[in-house]
Design brief:
single chain, Rossmann fold, about 15% strand
């Protein structure tokens, strides 16, 4: 079994981006990070994104509207950022408070600044295999991790657990693209799938993105499979200072010995998501300067 090291791969991408940004004279790429309220996971994600931007030389602007912000106020803020020529990319951290409709917010971000890749136009471009748009950061990071760790998808059976717009659907579309590093046969499973283990056991590459701690157990995995664990779950743990530990959607101790390759949690897909956000921000800067 080989660990797919997301920290290492993300660090390589960050170094590549840093070298590219260093060649930019004049205004550097700028990313607006909008976090509504104080959801603890969102606080740590936005902090990490802000730090990584600084490391690369990308300017970041962290905007923290209070949890009481109305949808109209948030949309007005997005309009302002859309119109601001000094901002290349806009990220609105999910989840948003319950009184705000996420899809409406995602669709309001200008498609040219949609570095999160959640706008209808950018998701549509993924389906049309049009590379001019932005691919959502987590699925883009998964593909990059797969390619850079030498896993070949062509002709393989990829089973995706989860059908969210953020992970499940776009990763399924990417894996089935007519590209030499994709070309997979893809099955997507969700909460209504009957006899899930019989399907996951067929996977050459199993991508778990369901948000259920340690859901995927050894009986659900074919020996020799590659497993990509997207889940980031906080499980109460009294032995930790924070009072919780992070775990994936895969029961790592029992599944890892069966796999040829597997991503750990933390240190797998998570850091790749941040790296791809930075890559998208540089792409947005290039679009603004084209
Ligand atoms: P969502 O809650 O939006 O979607 C979960 C999906 O899993 C749904 O399609 C749901 O099915 C399916 N599902 C839930 N329970 C089951 C079950 N028992 N059997 C089969 N399918 C099931 O989650 P996200 O896609 O946003 O996130 C998934 C996980 O990935 C989370 O742990 C999240 O924290 C993590 N994540 C990690 C990121 C990273 O950077 N590494 C980035 C984004 C997310 P249905 O559609 O029927 O409800």
């Amino acid at each position: 079994m080989e660990l797919i090291d997301g920290n290492n791969t993300a660090a390589q991408i960050v170094a590549e981006l840093k070298a590219e940004v260093a060649t930019i004279s004049g205004r550097k790429p700028c990313l607006a990070l909008v976090r509504v309220g104080d959801d603890p996971a969102s606080v740590s994600y936005v902090k990490k994104k802000d730090q990584t931007a600084a490391e690369i030389g990308i300017t970041s602007r962290v905007i923290l509207p209070p949890v009481s912000t109305t949808q109209a106020e948030l949309l007005a803020l997005i309009d302002q950022l859309n119109a601001d020529l000094s901002v290349d990319g806009i990220l609105v951290q999910s989840p948003l408070p319950k009184h705000i409709d996420e899809l409406t917010v995602f669709r309001r971000v200008s498609p040219q600044k949609d570095v999160d890749g959640f706008h209808t136009l950018n998701l549509g471009k993924v389906a049309q295999e049009d590379d001019s748009g932005f691919v959502a950061c987590t699925p883009a990071g998964i593909m990059e991790l797969i390619v850079r760790s030498g896993v070949k998808l062509s002709g393989k059976h990829v089973v995706v657990l989860g059908r969210s717009l953020i992970v499940g659907k776009p990763i399924a579309l990417l894996a089935m693209q007519r590209k030499p590093f994709a070309n997979a046969t893809v099955t997507v499973c969700h909460s209504q799938t009957a006899d899930l283990p019989s399907i996951t056991r067929q996977a050459d590459v199993l991508i778990a993105a369901i948000g259920k701690p340690e859901f995927v157990t050894a009986d659900m995995v074919k020996p020799g499979a590659v497993v990509i664990d997207v889940g980031i779950n906080r499980v109460p743990d009294a032995t930790k200072k924070t009072g919780y530990r992070l775990t994936g959607d895969v029961h790592f101790p029992s599944v890892a010995p069966l796999c040829t390759k597997i991503t750990p949690v933390p240190g797998g897909v998570g850091p790749m998501t941040v790296a791809m956000l930075m890559k998208n921000t540089l792409k947005a800067w290039r679009l603004a300067h084209a």
